[in-house]
Design goal:
Layout: H1 3-10, H2 15-41, H3 53-77
Length: about 80
C-alpha cells in the first residue's frame, strides 16, 4: 500500500480503516528505516546522519514493538491488516 492510499484511510470515518492506516504507515516507515540502516552498515549512505547509530537501533526496536502491539490489537479487535 502506498502513502496516498494510506492517507485516504487516515481520513476514513471507520476506526478500523484509521487503524489500518496507522499499521500500514508504521510498516512503511519501519521498512524504510531498516533499508537506511542496512545501507549505513554497508557504508553506502549518501548522507551523514546526525545521530549515532545506536539511537536508530533504539528507534527500530521501539517501532518493531509498536508494530507487534498493533498486530495483537488487530487480532483481538478483528481488524484485517493483511496487505
Amino acid at each position: 500500500m502506498n502513502l496516498s492510499e494510506i492517507a485516504k484511510l487516515m481520513l476514513d470515518g471507520d476506526y478500523r480503516n484509521r487503524f489500518r492506516a496507522e499499521y500500514y504507515h508504521l510498516k512503511v516507515r519501519l521498512n524504510n528505516l531498516k533499508a537506511v540502516l542496512k545501507l549505513w552498515d554497508e557504508n553506502k549512505l549518501d548522507f551523514t546522519p546526525d545521530c549515532p547509530r545506536s539511537i536508530y537501533t533504539i528507534q527500530l526496536r521501539a517501532m518493531e514493538e509498536y508494530l507487534a502491539v498493533l498486530e495483537a490489537r488487530a487480532r483481538i479487535e478483528n481488524v484485517n491488516i493483511d496487505d
